[in-house]
Design a protein that fits this description.
Blueprint lengths: L1 H14 L1 H20 L9 E6 L7 H7 L3 E4 L2 H10 L3 E7 L1 H8 L4 E7 L5 H18 L10 E7 L11 H30 L2 H6 L5 H27 L6 H25 L3 H23 L14 H13 L3 H29 L1
Parallel strand pairs: 1-2, 1-3, 4-5
Antiparallel strand pairs: 3-4
Length: about 350
């Protein structure tokens, strides 16, 4: 009986021209965008400097003569530019006393702020450039390479072993976008069954209410997980920790099913489903955008349920994370899926 209801809902879903077209065209469009995005990393970035009291330092003129160097007015401004743009791969803060020590030929230790994904070769090049700048400022002293010791500070996740292309950053957002569309479809099916009395008629017959809900969960999981599996396979990503990736996809689909139940529970008609669906779509999209644009990332994003889904996908697909690395995210996905499904089911039960 549950199987028959699942088949019936599948037919109804694809009879709806909007959802049928969006589902098929969405898969094709996202794949086209994915393969058109650059798969290589552009590592030609500049160098940022903060020099305290530049007018009194002999380094300032040498820094301004370097084409790839930019001198900021404050250390905070330099760090903000590094975190919010991709224009600089390293930032160096040079206090006044350190600049004086460099001028005297003394050994100094400086804080070098590296952007995520900077390879070791680039760090060595920066060290060499720094020595050249010091030599240009004090040619009579011929600065020694060993005089400069760096305290290395990586801003964000260190991706120096595997810098990410825009295509790699796009994957979690793409998978989130395709699966969240099924929230609209499942919520619409639930609302329609409540509105036209189909749900009430079914549960007054041999079908029990819990069987009705199980059938809806199954149709939602089939639609969400099925599309995720298709995308991951065509992208050639299924070989990356397949069991962990499939588990994450299942739990992500489960969260979307719970969200659909919650939206259906608080919606009076299809227009309400559309309104609440758009709100959830925008909200769930934010963590994915923060992966593509790291400058957007803030701590409060962990409050958004989809964070645990896209963060797990990001770690697994791009950093080869294991079970221990994402077990907290998976537990949160399961708990949030259960919570939203329970609340939505309880409210829908009262409406029947």
């Amino acid at each position: 009986m549950i199987g028959a209801l699942v088949v019936k809902d599948m037919k109804l879903f694809f009879r709806n021209r909007f959802f049928a077209v969006v589902t098929v065209l969405g898969l094709v469009a996202y794949l086209i965008i994915y393969f058109l995005m650059p798969s290589q990393v552009d590592e030609s970035l500049g160098m940022a400097f903060f020099l305290e009291n530049p007018e009194s330092s002999s380094l300032y003129e040498a820094l301004t003569d370097e084409p790839d160097a930019y001198v900021f007015d404050s250390e905070a401004e330099m760090l903000t530019a590094m975190e919010e743009t991709n224009d600089f791969f390293v930032g160096l803060s040079i206090p006044e006393e350190s600049a004086a020590a460099i001028a005297k030929g003394e050994e100094v230790t400086l804080n070098a702020y590296y952007a995520p994904g900077v390879p070791a070769e680039a760090k060595q090049i920066f060290h060499d450039v720094l020595v050249m700048i010091a030599n240009a400022a004090n040619p009579e002293m011929l600065a020694n390479f060993d005089r400069f010791q760096e305290t290395e500070i990586v801003l964000g996740n260190d991706m120096s072993r595997a810098p990410l292309s825009m295509r790699d950053r796009f994957v979690p957002l793409l998978l989130m976008a395709i699966v969240i569309m099924e929230v609209f479809g499942l919520a619409t099916l639930l609302t329609r069954d409540v509105e036209n009395g189909t749900a009430r008629a079914l549960i007054t017959g041999p079908l029990r209410l819990h069987q009705f809900f199980i059938a809806k969960v199954l149709i939602g999981m089939i639609l969400a997980f099925g599309q995720l599996l298709i995308l991951i396979t065509i992208m050639g990503r299924l070989g990356t920790a397949p069991l962990l990736l499939l588990t994450t996809s299942l739990l992500g689909g489960f969260l979307m099913v719970g969200t659909a139940f919650l939206i259906a529970a608080i919606s009076k008609d299809n227009m309400s489903v559309l309104a609440w669906g758009v709100v959830s779509f925008i909200l769930y999209f934010i963590p994915g955008l923060s992966i593509m644009l790291p400058g957007l990332s803030t701590g409060w994003m962990e409050v958004i349920p989809s964070f645990f889904f896209v963060d797990s996908l990001h770690r697994i697909l791009n950093f080869e994370a294991g079970w221990a690395d994402v077990n907290r995210n998976l537990a949160m996905l399961f708990a949030l899926g259960i919570g939203t499904l329970a609340i939505g089911s309880a409210v829908l039960r009262r409406r029947f």
